[in-house]
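Researcher: I'd like a structural prediction for the single chain below. Treat it as a standalone chain; there are no partners to consider.
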Amino acid sequence: MKSFYSKLLILTLSIFICSGSGYRGTLPDISTQFEYKRTSTEETQPFYKTIDETDHPAQFKNIPRENPAYIDIILKKDKSSPYINDLNDVIPLLEKLQKCIQTDGSIQKFNAIASSIIDHADYIAQKYADKPERYYISFSKLQSISAQVRSVATLRCESLVYIKYLASQGDGQIYSKESLQEQIDLLERELNMTIRILKDST
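Model: Treating it as a single chain, here is the predicted structure.
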């Protein structure tokens, strides 16, 4: 009999525990805080208005590196490294020499630009001789192109003086029109590569 009452007691307690009464209070009304979700008609606007715009995105202008105001205000403010600033000073000179070669400019113009490049390269070589920048690829490439520019400029000047005396001898071959053009073409290829490297570094 005791076991019957025990089982009945356990069953009654189980029913009472499992049937819990739960929360009987009132919940706060938060519907007003989410009203905008139901009534908002605003839609996300696409970045491009027409399909045509995705096929023809806006054209961006090249960086005006020859403009001192732009260099001082924009580039030098964002990148305060003196080395970067020095590279930005020499890039327009390299581009001028590149254009001079492409337009078949005079020897005088070529040499004037070449002289400026050599001066800038020498200045950078002295300024960063004992600094980590001397290990940069851009530093090495600038010094290399400076030496090549000096060599071609010297060769072109010498050709004006010596070609008439050496034309009939084997020594004059280095001053021939074909030989000079070969050196200029090689310089142009190196200029293109150097400009890319320097621009990537700034």
